[in-house]
Amino acid sequence: MYPKISIRDLNFYYNTVHAVRDLNLDINSNEILSVFGPSGSGVTTLLRSLNRLCDMIPGARCDGEILLDGKNINSPDFSVTGLRRRVGMVFDVPSPLPMSIFNNISYGPRMSGNKNKASLMEIVERSLRMAALWDEVKDRLGMSAMRLSGGQQQRLCIARVLALQPEVILLDRPCAALDPISTAMIEDSLFAMKEGLSVVIATHNTQQALRVSDRAAFMLSGSLIETGSTEELFSDPKEQQTADYITGRFG
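Above: the chain's sequence. Below: its structure in token form.
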């Protein structure tokens, strides 16, 4: 049985800038993998490469293989639209659509052809529950999503991705601008998510990586320095660079 995503000899370039270098990493089903490192370490580029968001950047180029269920997502015959349904991404700054909470969550399923109101309601409730937001908004689904707090908007954006029932969800520093209470709610929701999919979270916060992930990967200057179970990596790092970053000597 192969990993959900297997990355082999990945190199990523922005014109002449070598952003990711010779990276090999497996992402397993039903796990939370945290990828962390200082700014400029290549973490965001790695996440974006997993659902080909970097395709839209002029001068960007990817070498190597990213295998989703054994198939290379960079192959010419691999559907990018289908990929982004299977591998969803949530960014650091929440970006709700200027419409109701209900329509934010149901938008993706409706665009995929689901017009059944009862079915859409089930999807909205399930997605909001997984994102730990249902209890706060269940009586005001018709309200504009723009009126939610920052933490609620971020959980809404997570729910919007979950509504498409992805197999993998990528979160790029989802708590970067949030208060501790909102951060705790999002972290709690991750444990529910991994029961049905793979979760990859990029963070600059080593304590968050320690709290939420089953496995962790440390990147520096575009290279993967070390990976392993989170507990082992934080308690007994094998590489000096990892130990220095975790203990705050740099970064």
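The mean pLDDT is 94.
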